[in-house]
Write a structure and sequence with these properties.
6 helices, alpha/beta, seven-stranded mixed beta sheet, about 280 residues
Length: about 280
C-alpha cells in the first residue's frame, strides 16, 4: 500500500457522480431508499405542483413518493423523471400526416400568393409537420408573425384580394380577449371581407394543442398567472427551463411526440383545415 497517497486529500473532494435520469414507466419495479419500500409503478399523478409515483408492493399495498432522487432501479441509484413523451405511430401507408391520400410522385407546386400566417415559430413547425405535404401540393406557404399586436398593419401591407388570400391562425382566440379585438379590427378593414380569414384555438400556446395522452400525462399542468407559461410547463415536467435554448429544446421534445393529426386536439385540427380550404377552394 502506498501510504503517501493516504490522507484527507483523498476524501475531501470526492468525484461527483451524475445519476442517470430515467423516465418513469408503468410496471417499473423501484425501491425508495429512505423508506426501503419496494414496488411496481402503477400510476403517475400531479398533486400540489409535484409529480408523484405510486408503488404497489407484492402484497397489493401502495404508497406514493415524489419523483426525483432517492430511488433504486435494479439495485442502481437513479433520478426518477416524469414520463417521456410517447412516440406516436406514423401515418398509415398511402396517407400524409394530416390523413390525406398521398399522391405518389407529386412535386411541390410553385408558391402561390396566398399565405397562412401563424403567431410564432413553434406554430409554424407544428403546422408544417402535420400539414406540410398537403401545403406543398397546394403551393401554400406558412409564415410566422412573431405575435399579432401589429396584425392590422401587416395585413394592410400584404394587400389581400382575389387570388391573394390570407389565413391567420391565432393563439387564445376567445371572446373578449385582446386577440379577439385585434381580429375584429382587422376584419373590418378595407379588402378583408372575403379575402382574409382569422381563426384561432382556445389555448394559451400552441403547445397545448398536443393531446396530453401523447405526452404520457393526464392533462397539461396549470401555470399560475404572472409566470411565463412555457417556462412553467418545462419546470413542471422536470426539464431544463432557464434559457431560450432550454425552451427550444423542450419544444423539440414535444414536437417529436407528434406524428399525425390524431396527436392533436380537434379544436386546432378544425381551424387549420378551415384555413386550408379557404385558401385552396375557389
Amino acid at each position: 500500500m502506498d501510504y503517501q497517497n493516504w490522507g484527507p486529500r483523498g476524501i475531501s473532494a470526492p468525484k461527483r457522480v451524475e445519476l442517470p435520469e430515467v423516465p418513469v414507466e408503468r410496471g417499473m419495479v423501484l425501491e425508495e431508499v429512505q423508506s426501503g419500500w419496494v414496488g411496481a409503478v402503477t400510476r403517475v399523478e400531479k398533486s400540489g405542483g409535484m409529480h408523484l409515483v405510486a408503488l404497489e408492493d407484492r402484497r397489493g399495498k401502495s404508497r406514493s413518493f415524489k419523483l426525483g432522487f432517492g430511488f433504486l432501479l435494479e439495485g442502481q441509484p437513479i433520478r426518477l423523471m416524469p414520463p417521456a413523451p410517447k412516440a406516436a405511430a406514423g401515418p398509415p401507408a398511402g396517407r400524409t400526416a394530416s390523413g390525406s391520400v398521398r399522391v405518389p410522385g407529386q412535386r411541390a407546386q410553385v408558391a402561390k400568393a396566398s399565405r397562412i400566417w401563424v403567431e410564432g415559430k413553434h406554430d409554424a413547425e407544428l403546422v408544417e409537420k402535420v400539414w406540410g405535404d398537403d401545403l406543398r401540393v397546394e403551393g401554400i406557404v406558412v409564415e410566422p408573425l412573431h405575435g399579432i399586436d401589429d396584425l392590422a398593419a401587416a395585413v394592410a401591407d400584404f394587400k389581400p384580394g382575389p387570388g391573394r388570400r390570407l389565413g391567420v391562425l391565432v393563439d387564445h382566440l376567445v371572446p373578449d380577449s385582446k386577440e379577439s379585438r385585434i381580429a375584429d379590427a382587422v376584419m373590418a378593414s378595407p379588402g378583408a371581407a372575403g379575402n382574409v380569414l382569422i381563426v384561432g384555438h382556445p389555448y394559451v400556446d400552441v403547445w397545448q394543442a398536443i393531446r396530453p395522452s401523447v405526452l404520457g400525462i393526464e392533462k397539461w399542468p396549470a401555470i399560475p398567472r404572472g409566470q411565463d407559461w412555457k417556462t412553467g410547463i418545462l419546470k413542471a415536467f422536470g426539464w431544463p427551463h432557464s434559457t431560450k435554448e432550454d425552451i427550444g429544446l423542450g419544444w423539440q421534445k414535444l414536437l417529436g411526440a407528434v406524428r399525425t393529426y390524431a396527436d392533436l386536439e380537434a379544436s386546432l385540427l378544425g381551424r387549420v383545415e378551415e384555413v386550408i380550404d379557404f385558401l385552396t377552394v375557389p
